[in-house]
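DM between two lab members

TW: hey, do you still have the Post-GPI attachment to proteins factor 3 entry open?
JB: yeah, one sec
JB: this one, 317 aa:
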Amino acid sequence: MLWYSSRGCIGQCEKTGCVGERCFSHCKFSSDGASVDGPWYMQEPLYLRWKQWDCQSDCRYYCMLDREKDRAGSGQDPVKYHGKWPFKRVYGIQEPASVALSALNLAMHFHGWLSFFILLHYKLPLKLDKKPYYDYAGLWHIYALVSLNAWLWSVVFHSRDVDFTEKLDYSSAVAGLGYSLILAILRSFNVRTEAARVMVAAPLLAFTTTHILYLNNFKMDYGWNMKVCVFMAVAQLLIWAVWAGVARHPSRRKLWLVVVGGGFAMLLEIYDFPPYEGFVDAHALWHATTIPLTYIWWSFIKDDAEFRTSNLLKKVK
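TW: and the structure you got?
JB:
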């Protein structure tokens, strides 16, 4: 067994502040950032404390790198540490590829939402009260906010994986999937009255909220969470695909492209593999595939707004 596979490396590092020839100045500080051998003004820098790169974190990280280097030299595949693949940091960022791709997804959603808002209020006709004719506008605005929140916490979580950021990332992702499923049902079944929308949304909101509370307060069950997320994702993809064909929507090809692309992207979440060169794993590739799909998705939403507005105006006339 390799020496670095034991706890000896971490224990020795915490005592000496060094792994091999690498030594860490902040190993002179305790886990709460207070100096071990100096006054209060010798506290650890704020940016390091915020990112929680304390002595133990750095010891674990560099011991992991040394162990993986030895494993690679002996022809062995990478292994997970505390349930996570071994990634290489860049400027203190834990998963740089996923951070960059999550940020791009965030930007794509913001761009899509902004162009959707401009279309509704500046290009399409408005009612006398200056409100859009498109009766699903409010639901899509909420969808945009939920999506932006999910991708924001994805950026934060992949920058630094701690318990707090993990729970916010997982909770936001579940909330996004739950709301997307509700929206798929409401739009595909043409649910327009507020009372009917509440009746449809209430049980799904209750389920989503209960699942989030379970993950945060009882057990962070990754396997169960994966099943719940896959179920909600598959359900809404099937609903959109069937509705697009049955309703003969003029932009159904865009919707089908998103459904097929989303299905293939989901496989990357299910089929896990270690990060290539310590940077790009299956999850990062999933983030990459959702960038063009997000652009097409918002293009469909805008087409639907134009299509629905045109039909409503014909009925008014």
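TW: got it. The two ends are 80 Å apart (CA to CA). Strands lie at 18-19, 22-23.
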